[in-house]
Amino acid sequence: MNGRVGDLRIATDGLIYAGVYSTGIFRSESGVSGSWQRMNNGFPTTGFNRVEFAVCEKSPNVLYATLAGPNGNVSQAWYDLSVGIDPNNPDRVFIGGIDILVSANGGLNWDQLTQWFGGSGLQYAHADQHNIVFSTRSSNVIYFTNDGGIYRTTNGAALNPNVRFVSDGYNVTQFYACAVHPEEEQDWFLAGAQDNGTQLFREEG
Amino acid sequence: MNNTVEVTGGDGAFVHIDELNPNIQIFQLCFQCTELQIHPGTRVLLQEVLEEKVMGSFFINPTDYDSKSKTLYGSYKKFGMYS
């Protein structure tokens, strides 16, 4: 096995899986060199870059993978890509890119669960999902981590789970640039922020 | 951090206030999307989003503004420049 490993998981049956950029998913019983076998059954051989995947706890023969588009594509899945499987129901899958989506039928259909940019009518969660973690053996308690902090649902098995921000006090904003009003005594500052638009400050300090 | 007013949504990037006429303010967003505001109230879209695969635009593209000539300078990929 050669290449950059972007994801590594140990399934509940003891098998070890590795997602390799532009190559696919490899499986090993021991992890030692030479033991890795590429999974060829239905997995594409070209046209992708980063690979993220999850293995169901209850049914470790079920694995879902999400793939980033190849280099040069405008896609940003090289940055924000995640997948999580209900530990009790292998057909219920959450994936994260910019926003969070959910499938109740093994990936045949997807519903968008959150929207970081207003106006869609969907519930808000910050952009850029990096991890989806189910609380141990729970289908309802799920944590989503993204560029805005930590979000959680406590009814994850519901048709439309409620996702709530749970990391109050975790204050992070990345500013690229700022501009200051040229006149004295003018509290007028502009700053452009990743994910958080252009902000106007009218107070000193 | 103090309370703020969100002037534009999504991803913000470079911002400029004209030093000679501070009513002129420029907001550049991701992929070269650029808005001009004549304070207060008038907003003009100077440049729509230029996606990477179409125009060789980065996600964030450095810009600077010349208040004397009222010229905005910006960059493309591979050292390309525009004004």
Commentary on this structure:
The complex is a heterodimer of chains A (205) and B (83). Helices cover 0% and strands 37% of the residues of chain A. Chain A starts with a strand and ends with a strand. Chain A has strands spanning 5-10, 16-20, 24-28, 37-38, 51-55, 63-67, 82-85, 93-96, 100-103, 111-112, 129-134, 142-146, 149-153, 164-165, 175-180, 189-193, 197-201. Chain A folds into 2 domains: 5-165, Methylamine Dehydrogenase, Chain H, CATH 2.130.10; 173-205, no CATH class. Chain B has one domain (13-82). Chain B is built from 1 helix and 8 strands; from the N terminus they run βββββαβββ. Chain B starts with a strand and ends with a strand. The model of chain B has no long low-confidence stretch (mean pLDDT 79). Classes of the chains: A mainly beta (205), B mainly beta (83). Strand 17 of chain A pairs antiparallel with strand 1 (4-8) of chain B, so a sheet runs across the interface.
Tell how many strands the DSSP assignment of chain B holds: 8
Question: Radius of gyration of chain A over alpha carbons?
Answer: 20 Å
As a percent range, the share of strand residues of chain B is: over 45%
Say what oligomer this is.
Answer: heterodimer
Report the structural category of chain A: mainly beta
Q: Which strand order spans the largest sheet of chain B, edge to edge or round the barrel?
A: 2-3-4-5
Structural class of chain B: mainly beta
What's the average pLDDT of chain B?
Answer: 79
CATH uppermost class of the largest domain in chain A = Mainly Beta
- Here the CATH topology of the largest domain in chain A equals Methylamine Dehydrogenase, Chain H
* Sheet of most strands of chain B: 4 strands, antiparallel
Percent in helix of chain B: under 10%
Distance between the termini of chain A: 55 Å
The string of secondary-structure elements of chain B, in order, is EEEEEHEEE
Shape of chain A: globular
Overall body shape of chain B:
globular
Largest interface: A-B, 33 and 29 residues
Number of strands of chain A: 17
Number of helices of chain B: 1
Low-confidence stretches of chain A: none
Distance between the termini of chain B: 34 Å
